Write the structure tokens for this entry.
Amino acid sequence: MKRIYVREEWCLGCHLCEYECAFACSGEKNMVHALKGKSIHPRIRVEDGTGIHFAVNCRHCTDMPCVKGCIAGALSRDEHGMVVIDKNKCVGCYTCVTLCPYGAIMPDGEGKAAQKCMLCTDNGLTEPNCVKHCPNNAIVFEDRG
């Protein structure tokens, strides 16, 4: 399965991936209308360390602690191996947020449900927007088997 991988040594810490993610998830066609003057809630986030930056997103784990701990059955693995969330089933208990070993699941902007990276498949894109627009190619979308 193709996943997002981060080459942290190439990450500039520009946070552009966060904006591109928020834009892709907004449903808007114009980035200015989608984001200007609004609080963004991307499904990827950049952690800034001392001299190193890296993007954190869902790893679509093999053991899936988030899926195993979801009390509402809102998280599951699809036929392609991707961990998906059904927002209609999510009760907002955030058990998955606490169970994710990477901190890649977070509350949505409305505080009603959890959100996570869906590789932009729910946005109708063929390549994740964060990957497509990373200026330094620090974020890649590939199958490492």
